[in-house]
Amino acid sequence: MTKHYAGHFDLDEVANYACMSKYHFCRVFSEVYGESPYHYISKMRIEQAKRLLVTSKLSINDICEAVGYTSVGSFSFLFRKKTGMSPTQYRSKLWALVKDPLTYPVQSVPLCYAHHLFGEKIDKSNIE
């Protein structure tokens, strides 16, 4: 599911691949991941959209399609619901944080991941 988040999501197909009924798959998935398969896919799509908004010059429509949504309206509504701002506002706000707008700003990377990413001890007192 993580590799194919942008494709058409068919719960029956995924459950069949896992050799389970869709109901049993949903129960097991929710127990393991703490959310439904639909919420997981949605989260993956929004996270990738956030990356693309900051690191590319793709239009909102192109990003919408690249992450697996067919309706820009649905994508924008869900994006706003998850982030508190529209895709355009998100892009503008994060591009304003960096000198080179097409790099992923360190300010938006969680500290634990940044530590893993850069492989060095990060002094938390210097972070605003």
Automatic annotation (TrEMBL):
Organism of provenance: Neptunomonas concharum
Protein known as: Helix-turn-helix transcriptional regulator
GO molecular function terms noted in the UniProt entry: DNA-binding transcription factor activity; sequence-specific DNA binding
Pfam families: HTH_18
PANTHER family assigned: ARAC-FAMILY TRANSCRIPTIONAL REGULATOR (PTHR43280), HTH-TYPE TRANSCRIPTIONAL REGULATOR EXSA (PTHR43280:SF2)
Keywords: DNA-binding, Transcription, Transcription regulation
Domain HTH araC/xylS-type: 1-93
InterPro entries: Homeodomain-like_sf, HTH_AraC, HTH_AraC-typ_CS, Tscrpt_reg_AraC-type_HTH
